[in-house]
């Protein structure tokens, strides 16, 4: 009996095992995330780049994002957003914003390529985050357009349209057209989730799949409309509206013609 009692498990043993399993899972996830972020930050910035970037930041961005990029009521914190976010926002002219609105508008860039790199270097120095993508993942000749179409239709088409033509969202927001957009900007948008877009990190969509998506979009860029007018590639709504409008115009015209003959 004594031997049996010694083999009995303590009532809290199962709970202790569960806690240990959760801690182990969380630790492995943290290590994997840190590894991914470390892999992402492959671009190196000199001390001079970071210093010049800080000067540009204080002169142009600190009003909204705070003197230390900690964020204010007018703008979010930039600590940990990474160089890719800066390269996307500044490189497309979205930042600095021209005016407050539902979302930042694309406009001519206010900083040249070197200044954008310096700003990106300064923000990257504040905390680990997605880096500017490597050329390997922007080379559409290595991508799979068919797989890119599958990934795009599963994750992006509900906002950007199956043809990448963009579409309206709620409260004055919209998903922009992806036609004619630079490969790096598309990749960075998937990495960082600008505006209303979710973040697709490497665990959601791998770098190779991101390249496939870009390949698919570039294939759409080069496609013609074998059926005639593309009608903005907006699908059955625009096509149905055109058919109804033309049909109604024909009916009205025919009615006017018959009336004039009767008179």
From TrEMBL:
Residues annotated as domain Cytochrome c: 48-127, 143-221
Subcellular localization: Cell membrane
Record keywords: Cell membrane, Electron transport, Heme, Iron, Membrane, Metal-binding, Repeat, Respiratory chain, Signal, Translocase, Transmembrane, Transmembrane helix, Transport
Its EC number(s): 7.1.1.8
Pfam families, per the entry: Cytochrom_C (PF00034), Cytochrome_CBB3 (PF13442)
Transmembrane stretches, start-end: 241-259
Primary subcellular site in the record, as a coarse category: membrane
Subunit field text: The cytochrome bc1 complex is composed of a cytochrome b (QcrB), the Rieske iron-sulfur protein (QcrA) and a diheme cytochrome c (QcrC) subunit.
Reaction it catalyzes: a quinol + 2 Fe(III)-[cytochrome c](out) = a quinone + 2 Fe(II)-[cytochrome c](out) + 2 H(+)(out)
UniProt name for this protein: Cytochrome bc1 complex cytochrome c subunit
Highest taxon, organism lineage: Bacteria
N-terminal signal peptide: 1-30
Protein's membrane topology: Multi-pass membrane protein
Annotated InterPro entries: bc1_cytC-su, Cyt_c-like_dom, Cyt_c-like_dom_sf, Cytochrome_c_Oxidase_Subunit
Organism the protein comes from: Kocuria gwangalliensis
């Amino acid at each position: 009996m004594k031997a049996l009692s010694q083999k009995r498990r303590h009532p809290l043993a199962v709970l202790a095992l569960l806690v240990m399993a959760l801690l182990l899972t969380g630790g492995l996830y943290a290590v994997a995330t840190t590894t991914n972020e470390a892999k992402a930050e492959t671009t190196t910035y000199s001390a001079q780049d970071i210093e010049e970037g800080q000067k540009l930041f204080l002169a142009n961005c600190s009003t909204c994002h705070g003197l230390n990029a900690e964020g204010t009521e007018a703008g979010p914190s930039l600590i940990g957003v990474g160089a890719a976010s800066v390269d996307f926002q500044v490189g497309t002219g979205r930042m600095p914003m021209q005016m407050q609105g539902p979302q930042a508008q694309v406009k001519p860039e206010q900083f040249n390529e070197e200044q954008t790199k310096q700003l990106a270097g300064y923000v990257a120095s504040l905390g680990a985050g997605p880096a500017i993508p490597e050329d390997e993942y922007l080379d559409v000749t290595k991508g799979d357009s068919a797989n890119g179409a599958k990934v795009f239709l599963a994750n992006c088409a509900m906002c950007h349209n199956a043809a990448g033509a963009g579409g309206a969202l709620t409260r004055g927001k919209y998903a922009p057209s992806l036609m004619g957009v630079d490969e790096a900007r598309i990749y960075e948008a998937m990495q960082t989730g600008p505006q209303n877009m979710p973040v697709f990190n490497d665990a959601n969509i791998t770098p190779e799949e991101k390249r496939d998506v870009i390949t698919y979009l570039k294939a759409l860029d080069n496609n013609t409309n074998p059926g005639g007018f593309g009608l903005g590639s907006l699908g059955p709504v625009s096509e149905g509206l055109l058919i109804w409008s033309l049909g109604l115009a024909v009916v009205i015209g025919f009615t006017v013609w018959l009336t004039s003959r009767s008179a």
